[in-house]
Amino acid sequence: AEVRTLGGLPVSVLSAGTEHPDAGWPARQADLLRLSSNSSLSISEASGHNVHLDRPADATAAIVAMVERVR
Predict the structure, then answer these.
(1) pTM for the whole structure
(2) How far apart are CA 33 and CA 48, in angstroms?
(3) DSSP state, residue 19
(4) Among 70, 15, 71, which Cα is nearest to 47's?
(5) What would the pLDDT profile of 8-53 be if each residue is shown by its tens digit?
(6) What are 14's strand-pairing partners?
(7) For residues 3 and 62, what is the distance between their CA atoms, to the nearest angstrom?
């Protein structure tokens, strides 16, 4: 079954700052954000698809921000 809502469950989306070869990718990430009333988007401007490899500090910052949000 398709998940239509996560209610207020925190959702964090970390996006690459470079253009994705799949033109539909930004729309699918926006769909993820709409699943929750408590969602956030972070963009790693200087990274490609593998943010955790290209910009590990950005990935770490997104994780720390999520942990702080749910405490």
Answers:
(1) 0.82
(2) 20
(3) P
(4) 15
(5) 999 999 998 887 778 888 899 999 999 999 999 999 998 988 999 9
(6) 42
(7) 24
Specify the amino acid at residue 22. D
Residue 48: burial class (beta carbons within 10 Å; 0-12, 13-18, 19+): middle
Which tokens sit at 34?
A: 């709409």
How many helical (H) and strand (E) elements, i.e. helices and strands, does the chain have? 3, 2
At which residue do the structure tokens 């990430």 appear? 29
| Element containing residue 42 per DSSP (H, E) | strand 39-44
Distances (CA, A) of 64 to 4, 22, 41, 60, 70: 27, 29, 14, 6, 10
